[in-house]
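TA notes. Do not distribute before section.
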Amino acid sequence: MEKIVAYILLLVDIGKEYSVAEKVKQLNGVSEVKVVYGEYDVVVRVEVDSLKKLDKVVTSIRSIPHIIRSITLVSSS
């Protein structure tokens, strides 16, 4: 079965980038987390084997305090 790879862009409260990143790293399916500069604050790479699992990861991430907005980008390859 082919893995689903998605990138999630997070905008977080000022000064909370690293604490949010640490919480996101603990979630199943998360393969990489980077604090970045620019319009978004944290980029998350997710690898799962179903859309249902992707939905669970995205929902878990959105429930973390200090996240203002998220955008999920599903990779085509």
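Switch to the second chain here.
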Amino acid sequence: MKLLVAEDEPKTGIYLQQGLSEAGFNVDRVMTGTDALQHALSESYDLLILDVMMPGLDGWEVLRMVRAAGKDVPVLFLTARDGVDDRVKGLELGADDYLIKPFAFSELLARVRTLLRRGNSAPTQAILRIADLEMDLLKRRAIRGGKRIELTAKEFSLLELLMRRRGEVLPKSLIASQVWDMNFDSDTNVIEVAVRRLRAKIDDDFAVKLIHTARGMGYMLDGPDPE
């Protein structure tokens, strides 16, 4: 998932970019409100993390203009201003959460994941299809070639992530954060085991393989479109 961090304090911005990248996110970082607005309007982000006090435009003005442009991307404010009026102002402008500095990175990461889950809680598509594989997100079932595939809850979530990100190589760190809600531990083989089990159910009985391994990089799901 792609995040924008707008923070005018270089050390804090680099710290956030590095930490979120290690958690599996694709992170852009800017240092002014003007740049934040330009990125937010020209790029597609899953979450904006905005400092309130920035050169050019403050975070409130950035949020106001983003909402005026019709973008409903989740927004998390970071600020040293802890007054109730400030928090109310941000929320009234359309912010989704508000974190007071100084904060623990673990709390920021938890709030980011909560906002991303909340943003994805109502899927825009009820049915996902790639080749002869179909996922019904409402009925929570997967079918390939007319055959029902029995999946565990984690396998279903893993398959949904791979299908939603069709054609993208997803690193293990991203899979761990999105499916297991945890930081990736290189000493564990939980991701490899889960992918192997999912592959056995999705691919083993079919000539066309959909789940692919990019050695040293991660996993991808893709296949030919149905004719």
